[in-house]
Amino acid sequence: MRRLPAVGLWLFASAALAQTPNPMDSISKLPAYRPSHDTLPLLTVARIAKYAPAQRREWTSYLQRSHDRYTRDTAAMGRELRAAKRAAMTRAPYTHDFSVKPYMTAAWFAADSARRLAENILSFQAPNGGWSKHVDFADHPRRVGESYFAEDTTWNWISTIDNDATTEQIHFLDRADRARRDERYERSVARAIDYLLASQYPNGCLPQVYPLEGSYHDAATFNDDATVNVLRVFREVAAGEFPYVASAQRRRAAEAETRGLDCILASQVRVHDTLTAWGQQHDPLTLAPTSARSYELTSLTALESASIVDFLMSIPSPTPRVVRAVYAATDWLASAPRLNGYTYVNYVLARHDGAAPLWGRLYEIGTNRVIMANRNGVTLDDWNGLTDRRSGYGWYTTKPAATLAAFESWSRSHPRTR
């Protein structure tokens, strides 16, 4: 049996936590996080000294701010629970996802239903300025002692950029404000932008969860377009698309987008001296691709790499380095093995002559073999071998086809550089 990657073996060393289930398994919740500079597995003091000595002071300061933010957030909830004479939080209402939907037109945002939803979103904004994920904001406003997270009653995912969280709440409240101005929406958006700026690492990368939680959450996260979503918000802020945002915040957002772009370019994986694509997550210090949950293997990813290429092609005046990155990634996408004659709908892979080609979600680095895994973390190359992870996770995608089509047009005005 293939051993789990080292990233999954060290989360917390205490005897009390040694009996907890593997925290890399998405079925099990993470053990309670106790912030300390020396208990963050990807961001220990020793690793910072080894891999980022020139930025040691910046990283140490970042970790201290994360620790302090975590302490303030949990203390605020503690005070709320004590005032209500309650011992524990209750779960927030659950839904699969939240985003600004196509039916949410300007007319819809001007109606009372949008205003009610906006009120609920405001109530679920965490003290740190961000939002958690999987919260059904349409159900009710947050109640006293209710968690900001919907899947359990421990302090997890508060707050996050995973699954479009925080960036989509920003867009929703901004759209609501355009339809019917409300200074509370504007203050909320400004707080959320400050949250995103505070979460950015000294090297420009972004963790999945901030304040930091440890485990794979601390990796530089491209999975589910998390980093790209944040950098697009930074670009919108810098361009003045949120007119109520202060000029100082716009300047900070412009700088943050530039540093985030540096992270993307520095993270592009080189295989045998050839630039290729990106992983779903990368070590925050070395920027090497790494694993996340047990079935999210260290790999190159076609889905998220296509989104990164889309972002790079949207840069108005790309530098030669950006142009080179786009050509390298599209070369890789064009050459990556794909599956023909199949559809992939609702997690079901089925024969269908003439269907659009399918790219794998994950590719083994060096061989470009499509790989996948169940929760046991054993590498597979056959979808039929999937059992407990056959459903609920997208193993194939058609997204690169649209990216490569867009590249054909983009390349005509941006020739390949040497």
Quick one: biggest sheet?
4 strands, antiparallel
Q: How many distinct domains? A: 2
Named at the architecture level, the CATH assignment of the largest domain is Alpha/alpha barrel
Discrete helix count: 12
> What's the β-strand tally?
14
Distance between the termini: 44 Å
The chain-level structural class is alpha+beta
- Beta content comes to 5-15%
Helix content: 25-40%
Mean pLDDT: 90
Major sheet: arrangement of strands: 6-11-12-13
Shape: globular
Succession of helices and strands:
HHHHHHHEHHEEEEEHHEEEEEEEEH
Rg from C-alpha positions?
A: 21 Å
CATH class of the largest domain: Mainly Alpha
Q: CATH topology of the largest domain, anyone?
A: Glycosyltransferase
Structure description:
The chain is an alpha+beta fold and 418 residues long. It has two domains: 83-267, Glycosyltransferase (Alpha/alpha barrel), CATH 1.50.10; 273-418, Glycosyltransferase. Helices cover 39% and strands 8% of the residues. It has twelve helices and 14 strands. The chain has a four-stranded antiparallel β-sheet. It has a three-stranded antiparallel β-sheet with strand order 1-4-5, with no helix packed on it. A three-stranded antiparallel β-sheet has the order 7-10-14, with no helix packed on it. Strand 8 and strand 9 form a beta hairpin. The longest helix has 28 residues, at 56-83. Mean pLDDT is 90; it is low at 1-40.
